[in-house]
Amino acid sequence: MTTFNAHDIAKAAKTAFQEAQLIPSSERVVALNEIRKSLEAHKAEIIRANEEDLREADVEVKAGKMSATLLKRLDLNRGDKWDSMLQGILDVAALPDPTGNVSYASELDDDLELYRVACPIGVLLVIFEARPEVVVNIASLAIKSGNAAILKGGKESNRTTTLLAKAISAGLLKTAIPELYIQAIQTRAEVSSLLELDQYIDLVIPRGSNSLVRNIQNNTRIPVMGHADGLCSVFVDEHADVTKAVRVVLDSKIDYPAACNASETLILHESVVYTIWPTVAKALLKANVKLLCDSVSLDALKQLSPKPSNFETLVSPSTPSSYDTEHLDLILSVIVLPSIQSAIQFINSHSSHHTDSIVTESDVAASTFCRGVDSAGTYVNASTRFADGFRYGFGTEVGISTGRIHARGPVGLDGLVTYKYMMKSKAPLGHIVGEFGTGKKQYKHKPLSAATVPFLDVLCTMYRDVKVTQALLDNLVGALRGLPILVLVTTAGSGAAIFLERPLVPGVTEGCEVSEETTIFLLRAVVLVVGNSSTSSSLMTSGTIAAFGRLPRLVLAIATSSSFVSSVSASDTGVLPLARVVRARGFFATPLEDESVSDSSPRVRPPTAVLQKLSAWIDVVARVSA
């Protein structure tokens, strides 16, 4: 990837996205399982790379150039993080397909139907700091939702993210999903350039510090989805239960202090200062949480007898900035307020609108809090740490959005799809707008019940049953004579996949007999054409164009030169040029620059990577045809 510039990366991502739209959604699940296997197979080297990143980061921490919090987030082998990362892939794979679902369907007129259908957003640019497992989380969600992704981790985790991305690519290579569907970049310069490419990139998702998010928001025309800070709070209401208060406050702070959903502020109703607060404070101090207290909460703690042994070192007065600070550590700002209304006002003024919780036994207070607090998550008697895509049942998350448009809170699969409108007329003459209006036809706008778009299902069925006749094959063979080609065919009867290498040069026997039962198509077989710029013109006979055009879809072409596809122009016959047929039918071409291949070569053998990709298509054939 280092040989590509930002434009190449973005364009490749957009191309991969467009090509993948014609691949069955079931293949995305296969891809996720292959990625999981690939990561497990490469675990040892990934962990070694992570240890190297940790050693360098530790030097930075000791030099005061990096926070200890960032170092903790970097460790991929901490606790069950690795296993959770792999389980997250399986969880995402098991979720329902978020694409293709109909959210609105209407019959506008007799035989004129309109559908609003969920579809992928496109190409995602995801920028994050420190946490290398985010590479896998994002890749899983992107693949399952049908989006391509470009990922940029922090420089402190370069070794780890590079190997994670390579393992993901190795997994994709065994499937029908394009290898460049998920790409990783390493430098800030690449990010800056990518932020200008709104013609290729559809959504930017930053995960990290306030400064990171703000900088991205201010330097791109591309829509940005994310949150700048995780200023979460817990409010202990006057009707709170002391046991619940201790459990919720403690877990919200100490479960993982460096997380964006850890609480940073504790708000106390004035009536609990001398009842519940001392018990909560003792539990926090026992967990070595530093308390930054306002005057009222501090006075209450000074009356503790006996005082905890760490009281003098962990309890201190707060400052106004304490309540606007994301500590990301065992530090908690504490303030006392006179009412639930003042607590709501305080949260809306000081929080980042991420997640806030109330501890109360009052349904009225719970309702007031949840309706009044303007945050992505409002909880009752529950830890703020529940604000997480995995815990919500999303499998994992691409991030947490504190915005108000499109997606809010933990963003899972549903947040990575948009929709398009599909319309079909079944009338003999089609439909035109000029037939409607005053004194003309009126729109029916009759609701339809539909979970999916009917004519899309029909299309898949048609593709599955297409046959290619001997005449069509003869036409193709004749047009391609003189070119080395590799053909993969499967016969409808046996379901077996066979590689047939046929050096179709004059005087050489083709070496195989193709019956009328032979099927060449996405779900049955692959045609692989190897050529270069000097031979591409011979493909442009009218017979060849017609033959290619009659195939429902070609799957893969490998050329020794990029001009194989790009140099094709319209023929004198008026038939669609091959390049347009290619784009219209989901065909994708991959140039392989190989100086060892000459025009006179009787046979060109594709590299191992190509054979692996073809093998993946054989698997597609077997799965769909079963």
TrEMBL record:
Its EC number is 1.2.1.41. GO terms for molecular function: glutamate-5-semialdehyde dehydrogenase activity. Signal peptide: none annotated. InterPro entries: Ald_DH/histidinol_DH (IPR016161), Ald_DH_C (IPR016163), Ald_DH_N (IPR016162), Aldehyde_DH_dom (IPR015590), GPR_dom (IPR000965). Residues 5-288 form the Aldehyde dehydrogenase domain. It catalyses: L-glutamate 5-semialdehyde + phosphate + NADP(+) = L-glutamyl 5-phosphate + NADPH + H(+). The keyword Transport does not apply. One of its GO terms (biological process) is L-proline biosynthetic process. Pathway: Amino-acid biosynthesis; L-proline biosynthesis; L-glutamate 5-semialdehyde from L-glutamate: step 2/2. The keyword Oxidoreductase applies. Keywords: Amino-acid biosynthesis, NADP, Oxidoreductase, Proline biosynthesis. HAMAP family: ProA (MF_00412). PANTHER family: DELTA-1-PYRROLINE-5-CARBOXYLATE SYNTHASE, GLUTAMATE SEMIALDEHYDE DEHYDROGENASE. Belongs to the gamma-glutamyl phosphate reductase family. Catalyzes the NADPH dependent reduction of L-gamma-glutamyl 5-phosphate into L-glutamate 5-semialdehyde and phosphate. The product spontaneously undergoes cyclization to form 1-pyrroline-5-carboxylate. This is glutamate-5-semialdehyde dehydrogenase.
